[in-house]
Amino acid sequence: MDQRSLWERYKKYLCKCPSIGLTIDISKMNFADDFFARMEPEIQKTFKTMDTLESGAIANPDENRMVGHYWLRTPSLAPSPKIRCEIEDTGKAILQFAHDVHSGKIRPQKS
Hints:
Layout: H1 3-13, E1 14-17, E2 22-25, H2 35-54, E3 58-60, E4 65-66, H3 69-73, H4 81-103
Antiparallel strand pairs: 1-2, 3-4
């Protein structure tokens, strides 16, 4: 590939995500120019699956449970107010416990 083609490919495939301070140069990875268009249906299917899981679908049918570890970081994404409150209340209890340990309110039985 000549220098001009490399430069054009670089400009086309440089991925900038300023909201998270990330820039990735994928221009020299080995993929065809139609790769993203071909992958679009799979990408859309994946986004739909993720939305379904994030909204509380059963992800592990053997154990009949949801997967919601991302709700711990953002409780507002939890699929129900009950789950959101449980996450928020637990977080507050953990912070209070840590504060009580650091302040000396909670101490070992023997020092």
